[in-house]
Amino acid sequence: MVKLYSYFRSSAAYRVRIALNYKGVPYEYAAIHLLKDGGQQFSEAFRALNADALVPVLEDEAHLLTQSLAIVEYLEETAPDPPLMPRDVIERAYVRSIASAIACDIHPLNNLRVLRYLVRTLGVSDEQKNAWYRHWVEQGLAALEARLVAEDRSGRFALGDAVTMADVFVVPQIFNAQRMDCSLDEVPTLMRIFSHCMELPAFISAQPSSQPDAE
Amino acid sequence: MVKLYSYFRSSAAYRVRIALNYKGVPYEYAAIHLLKDGGQQFSEAFRALNADALVPVLEDEAHLLTQSLAIVEYLEETAPDPPLMPRDVIERAYVRSIASAIACDIHPLNNLRVLRYLVRTLGVSDEQKNAWYRHWVEQGLAALEARLVAEDRSGRFALGDAVTMADVFVVPQIFNAQRMDCSLDEVPTLMRIFSHCMELPAFISAQPSSQPDAE
Predict the structure, then answer these.
(1) Would you say domain A2-82 falls under CATH 3.40.30.10?
(2) What DSSP line would sit under A109-175, residue for residue?
(3) In chain A, where does the domain assigned CATH 3.40.30.10 lie?
């Protein structure tokens, strides 16, 4: 059985949990608390698994896989059914571009380590830190919403009526946005996709509050 | 012929230029100046191509492709020879995780729009801005170096002696690091890979100084 090193609130780990659930791949859950003990991801034991000191890590036999984008692609290649990627090359590029917009343009700016640097090194106030958070989420989601509308490929999900890797990345980002009280009034297409995803067991059981380490 | 909307200094565009060159895909170069005219990426004409207002955009017939990770995967699927991805699934995950570590963990923190927010909205000094830049690059590259050493898969390039998507992402990041005077003494494996890549025409002709819009 594969083993997932995860933190309930990590949105990158949440993506991998959704993909594992959706594909029906059973996994053992190993909790890495990102705040306790000065951050368990910085322990020698965890750094031996991943020098990046980041979750998620997927352990598959002797192999240690890192980076949520790479892990989801790996799951697609090793457990192709049910698929999270369409067959058409243009549609595949579209799906990957949505996942990538979230993973590269929105999420990295609001990582724990970035927020910490703002407060501890640059001395910004809590208010400024929260404004930073909301700025990047709201701007990023607005740009994504505009793309979804312009491309006109969405249905119940980001690409028509089948779940893809795009949805796997959208849902955890919306979860974070809600937790941080970001405005979501301007992104009705993303919220429609989010609602449809949250009707599905794979997404429901992957959510932060359903994890063994939830607080 | 495909058309690439690019800015000579954009490292995301640089990745796509390398991939196009490496695969021998001829392309038309459309320069989008990220600083002139308040940023040409914000023009109505460009936003009609990409609501994200980011380069690169690859135009292939009627299709507009965005996000460098998605574009390189698309090129791999549509112009598979010579390959930028290995065949083995574990090696593929390794290659993607390196590309992703750069695209998701290092580069986004040093984008123009992020540096502007630090200065204009948070009022940090130029010195603090440069320290921020170097902090994320040096920390990110050190983590990547540690992974390359631990995985022990590199040779002339990030995976053995053949160029992959990992190298396509490493080189532009090292270029940026050099331009910003980041310390690179602690990443000898990455620098060895960089040197070997910079012997190849695909990488040389994709570099910022060789672009039609270079300054």
Answers:
(1) yes
(2) GGSHHHHHHHHHTS---HHHHHHHHHHHHHHHHHHHHHHHHHHT-BSSSSBBTB--HHHHHHHHHHH
(3) 2-82
Condensed to tens digits (0 to 9), the pLDDT of residues B139-164 reads: 999 999 999 999 999 999 999 999 99
Residue labelled with tokens 């594969």: A2
Residue of A nearest to B166 (CA): A70
Residue B181, both tokens: 């005077």
**Residues of A with Cβ-Cβ distance to B103 under 8 angstroms:** 100, 103-104
Which residues from B are below 8 Å from A78, CB to CB? 89
Sequence-ordered alpha helix ranges (H) in A165-210: 165-179, 188-197, 201-204
Contact call for residues A46 and A40 (beta carbons, < 8 A)? yes
Give yes or no for a contact between A76 and A84, defined as CB atoms under 8 angstroms apart. Answer: yes
Beta-strand relationship, A63-66 and A57-60? antiparallel
CATH number of the domain located at residue range(s) B89-202 in this protein: 1.20.1050.10
Cβ pair A52:B105 closer than 8 A: yes
- Over the stretch A124-171, which tens digit does the pLDDT of each residue have? 999 999 999 999 999 999 999 999 999 999 999 999 999 999 999 999
Q: Which two tokens stand for residue B13?
A: 């565009």
CA-closest candidate to residue B156, choices B187, B199, B186: B199
Mean pLDDT of A121-125: 95
CA A161, CA A154: separation in Å to the nearest integer? 8
ipTM for this prediction: 0.96
CATH 1.20.1050.10 domain residues, chain A: 89-202
